[in-house]
């Protein structure tokens, strides 16, 4: 078994967790989102004010860490290395967990090429970010879809796909858009394109106050981490930090018994947020199994 696990680890080139990021970069890890249940897509909202399962607690911790990164920051931009790393999932659920504290949040789809956030929000109209940037619309309130994911979460869709996305995002009207949104919202979350695919991410980043770089465990090749370190050192992105997504339970995988979060707090709740019986010590549990009675 030892040789098998060592060989499997040797051939595994994906990011294996927080340690890989900390060993190969100087980027701060803002949060770790545990693996989702099977069948949960990127559009699903898995957090709630009434839940206390570990994925909700992970998002609460991510919310708390934002103040340590840049206290008072209102504009958060999400990006990743490639598609499929979960930035849309993380941005949507973070918006809901921020709104749970009474804050007004707007989720802006700045991926005007793929428009994933807009599609998940059911936006069928062609008006949105692109039409505002082109000058067709001047009143942002006409473009907002209210109370989409939560009573305090609105969505600004991407709009129609323009022939010149990069040039449109370079317009001064992007700064005007953010300035107007700041008047009405406590947080502005920008769901952007992958950073190493097209130039849109670096163009939009000029208005961002925190850049949240989503890395999916086991998907991104570790060799890309040196490129992230270069982007960080050259300050290509404002206040760049990492959010690890789909983090596996190392305790269950290797039999260490600690689990996600080292067992503090998470063990007292079921996945649906209800209380469950407190865990007993292994010695007491063994005696109960052997003698079917309590210790004396």
Largest sheet: 8 strands, mixed
Radius of gyration: 21 Å
Strand % is: 15-25%
How many strand segments?
A: 8
Key traits:
34% helix, 16% strand, eight-stranded mixed beta sheet, 296 residues, 12 helices, alpha/beta
Topology:
Layout: H1 2-11, H2 18-24, E1 29-34, H3 54-70, E2 75-80, H4 87-99, E3 105-109, H5 116-120, H6 129-133, E4 145-150, E5 153-156, H7 165-169, H8 173-182, E6 187-191, H9 200-204, E7 210-216, H10 225-233, E8 240-247, H11 250-254, H12 282-291
Parallel strand pairs: 1-8, 2-6, 2-7, 3-5, 3-6, 7-8
Antiparallel strand pairs: 4-5
Helix pairs in contact: 3-4
Short description:
With 296 residues, the chain is α/β, with parallel strands linked by helices. The chain has helices at 2-11, 18-24, 54-70, 87-99, 116-120, 129-133, 165-169, 173-182, 200-204, 225-233, 250-254, 282-291, and strands spanning 29-34, 75-80, 105-109, 145-150, 153-156, 187-191, 210-216, 240-247. It contains 12 helices and 8 strands.
């Amino acid at each position: 078994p030892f040789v098998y696990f060592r060989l499997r680890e040797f051939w595994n080139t994906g990011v294996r967790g927080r340690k890989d990021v900390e060993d190969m970069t100087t980027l701060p890890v803002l949060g770790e989102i545990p693996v989702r249940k099977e069948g949960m897509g990127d559009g699903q909202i898995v957090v709630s004010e009434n839940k206390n399962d570990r994925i909700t607690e992970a998002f609460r911790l991510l919310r708390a860490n934002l103040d340590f990164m840049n206290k008072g920051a209102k504009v958060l931009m999400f990006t990743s290395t490639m598609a499929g790393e979960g930035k849309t999932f993380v941005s949507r659920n973070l918006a809901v967990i921020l709104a749970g504290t009474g804050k007004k949040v707007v989720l802006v789809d700045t991926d005007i090429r793929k428009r994933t956030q807009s599609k998940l929000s059911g936006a069928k109209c062609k008006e949105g970010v692109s039409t505002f940037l082109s000058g067709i619309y001047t009143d942002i309130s006409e473009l907002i879809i209210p109370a989409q994911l939560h009573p305090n979460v609105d969505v600004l869709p991407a709009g129609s796909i323009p022939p010149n996305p990069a040039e449109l995002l370079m317009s001064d009207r992007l700064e005007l858009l953010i300035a107007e949104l700041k008047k009405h919202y406590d947080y502005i979350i920008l769901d952007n394109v992958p950073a190493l695919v097209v130039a849109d991410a670096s163009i939009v980043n000029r208005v961002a106050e925190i850049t949240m770089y989503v890395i999916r465990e086991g998907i991104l090749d570790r060799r890309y981490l040196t490129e992230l370190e270069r982007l960080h050192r050259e300050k290509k992105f404002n206040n760049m930090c990492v959010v690890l997504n789909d983090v596996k339970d190392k305790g269950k995988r290797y039999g260490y018994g600690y689990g996600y979060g080292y067992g503090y707090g998470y063990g007292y709740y079921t996945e649906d947020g209800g209380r469950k019986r407190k865990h007993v010590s292994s010695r007491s549990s063994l005696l109960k199994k052997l003698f079917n009675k309590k210790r004396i």
